[in-house]
Write a structure and sequence with these properties.
By secondary structure, this protein is mainly α. The protein has 2 domains: 46 residues, no CATH class; 208 residues, Orthogonal Bundle (MetI-like fold). The chain contains 14 helices and no strands. Helix 1 runs antiparallel to helix 14, helix 3 crosses helix 14 and helix 5 crosses helix 8. The mean pLDDT is 86.
Length: 269
């Protein structure tokens, strides 16, 4: 009986958490006059809000832009983050721990502090209104470095020594030895990086003004607050649903590795 009550409680908690997302999806399929009533089950389902949204904004182009930018940023963080994490976990050099603590310290700095210097650099480089401004600043991630560093510490040193005896260099050890044995860490860093890059709104609003280069969150934000939605709540909810869908799908497929990495990646000295 205690277990049954416990599972009922968990189901209620899950329902409370999922209700806003379920309501958003159903409301985007509901007639416009029923959305304001906050009814859970609409009298009829229609794709009219999605059709109007597609006719008002270039959401397909924005989706492609977001996928390209987020994928490139994620790939860069996996490559460069694993290289730095390997150096901080396995290579012996003076100042290694100091560099690690500096990396941790950068996580405490709010993005607004580095916003203006980064924008000035984009202007100096001539990268405003280009993909470079969206991709390059995100290629190095402090959280990715820390997760890789901690996970690489859990891999036996004997495996790395055996690779060195076989003639592998540091890059070969990273990509041919550590990567295949660090799938949970790769998935975790990949999901977190992709999600952060996909949901980023402030930075694209600053460096991108061309409609053909806008990311999906940026376009949806301008669509919702800029007047193009014409106060139609269903159209706004349809855009928000499409914006959230890729992240939900990615997490559903990779949640096992995500949880495994978060459980096994601890603080190791």
């Amino acid at each position: 009986m205690k277990r049954i009550i416990f599972y009922i409680f968990l189901c209620l908690c899950a329902l409370v958490f999922l209700y806003p997302f379920i309501w958003m999806l159903l409301a985007s399929l509901s007639p416009e006059n029923e959305i304001g009533a906050l009814t859970f089950l609409p009298t009829s389902l229609s794709l009219n809000s999605y059709a109007q949204m597609l006719s008002k904004i270039p959401i397909t182009r924005a989706f492609i832009n977001s996928m390209f930018v987020s994928s490139m940023v994620t790939l860069g963080v996996l490559v460069f983050g694993s290289m730095v994490g390997y150096a901080l976990s396995r290579l012996e050099f003076r100042g290694r721990n100091l560099i690690f603590f500096i990396v941790i310290f950068t996580m405490t700095l709010p993005f607004q502090i580095t916003l203006i210097p980064q924008y000035i650099l984009m202007v100096k480089f001539g990268w405003v209104d280009t993909y470079w401004a969206l991709i390059v600043p995100g290629l190095m991630n402090a959280l990715g470095i820390i997760l890789f560093r901690q996970y690489f510490k859990s891999i036996p040193q004997d495996l790395i020594d055996a690779a060195r005896i076989d003639g592998c260099g540091d890059l070969q050890i990273i990509f041919r030895i550590l990567w295949p044995n660090s799938l949970p860490a790769l998935v975790t860093v990949g999901i977190l990086t992709f999600m952060t890059s996909w949901n980023d709104v402030l930075w694209p609003l600053i460096v991108i003004r061309n409609d053909h280069l806008m990311t999906m969150p940026q376009l949806v934000t301008l669509f919702a607050v800029g007047g193009a939605a014409e106060s139609q709540l269903g159209v706004k909810l349809a855009a928000a649903t499409l914006l959230a869908l890729p992240i939900v799908i990615a997490y559903l497929f990779f949640q096992k590795y995500f949880i495994q990495s978060m459980a096994s990646t601890g603080i190791k000295e």
